[in-house]
Design brief:
about 375 residues; five-stranded parallel beta sheet; globular
């Protein structure tokens, strides 16, 4: 008979082995977005929503794996994006990613994901070329593109009987893309562009451009860019007396835009694919679960898309295991997937079709769906030149 200390040690070893046998295999996912800088509000909202999806999955006793989230900051800068994408892709322990809010960063990193075979799902960037310029099986996107946004925007604004526009856009691929598609659809819908002005994303003074725009007397100033630049332009429009409706894109649909402008944000218009979170199929539950975690930042406009992307990735891993190639193939087969943002079906370039575009207006310090606003029922009127 074995001595008591040895018997006790063997029992402990058997118990530990049994626990290890029942423990779930750890699987790493990466989230990449702008966690610092001018559009960090959107990145933090997307990161938190991804974290929420991971927490809920790890609390599910039926889940085959235990997920670990690695969060990386791309700063909304292409060069930094390539660095962190390379870091994530070269870590063979990372199986898949939920990546990018900024289009210029998403566009710069697609070659990296393809080279390393890391399957990713874009959650916020809207430049069409991210999915359509190449045929990379690793790159997927759950949100829509700026094509959808601008077609709806042009049709809606001309439907309000506006006729004359000045366009000001940043000179990144994101801004130039918005200018291209909005200009194309505006002309098709009978609108007229009086002048187009490209500005750099870090430009501070717009006196020259806005003085020319003032002389052109447009009814609407269309802005193609993101929140920090939009805040500076709208502020200087007021100082220079440019009286026109301020029409933006999904790039300004954030709490930071309103916080940066205060009362000057009132009446600003913007367009974004999908519905507000509270009106999405699973939006109410998503918001309740998000708020229960007491994150310091709201989910912002694209948080629900990040949440959907994370769940799509984890469902693929649950089905085929933590193998990059198998996960990529499973994601490529996505059809009629039910998510918080609605049904997800990837086309031949792994782009989700998001037919719904929501029209927003700032009213009393909040982004309001146009149809629910006082502007839609004529209780309030947009600025007239």
């Amino acid at each position: 008979m074995l001595p008591r200390p040895l018997r006790a040690a063997m029992c402990c070893a058997l118990l530990l082995a049994a626990c290890d046998a029942g423990a779930k295999e750890a699987v790493k996912l990466v989230f990449i977005g702008p966690l610092t800088g001018g559009v960090s509000a959107n990145g933090l909202g997307g990161r938190n929503a991804t974290d929420l999806a991971v927490r809920l999955r790890n609390a599910d006793a039926k889940a085959r794996y235990r997920y670990e989230l690695v969060s990386l900051d791309d700063e909304c800068k292409p060069n930094i994006g390539v660095q962190v994408a390379t870091k994530a892709s070269s870590d063979r322990g990372i199986v898949a990613g939920v990546t990018h809010y900024c289009s210029t960063v998403a566009m710069a990193t697609v070659d990296v994901y393809h080279k390393f075979g890391l399957p990713v799902v874009v959650w916020g960037a809207v430049l069409p070329d991210i999915t359509y310029a190449n045929d990379y099986p690793e790159v997927h996107r759950v949100n829509g593109t700026m094509i959808n946004q601008n077609e709806t925007a042009a049709r809606f604004m001309t439907g309000l009987k506006y006729q004359r526009w000045a366009v000001i856009h940043d000179t990144t691929d994101y801004g130039k893309g918005h200018n291209k598609y909005f200009s194309e659809y505006l002309v098709k819908n009978g609108g007229r562009i009086l002048g187009t002005f490209g500005v750099t994303a870090d430009q501070q003074d717009f006196s020259a451009e806005l003085t020319k725009i003032k002389d052109l007397k447009p009814e609407v100033v269309y802005f193609g860019g993101t929140t920090p630049l939009g805040v500076r332009i709208r502020t200087q429009m007021d100082k220079l007396g440019v009286k026109a409706v301020f029409q933006g894109t999904s790039g300004i649909v954030s709490e930071a835009y309103i916080e940066g402008l205060g009362p000057l944000a009132e009446g600003s218009l913007a367009f974004r694919e999908g519905a507000p979170a509270e009106k999405l199929p699973g939006g109410k539950s998503f918001l309740e679960q998000y708020n229960a975690q007491k994150y310091n930042d709201p989910p912002e406009a694209y948080g629900a898309f990040a949440f959907a992307a994370a769940n799509l990735v984890m469902d693929a891993i649950e089905k085929v295991g933590p193998d990059r190639r198998k996960v990529r193939s499973e994601l490529n087969r996505t059809r009629d997937y039910q998510s918080v943002v609605g049904t997800i079906t990837f086309d031949d370039h792994r782009q989700n079709a998001v037919p719904l575009i929501t029209k927003f207006v700032v009213q009393d310090g909040r982004w309001i769906v146009w149809e629910d606003s006082d502007y839609a029922n004529c209780k309030r009127k947009l600025v007239k030149p």
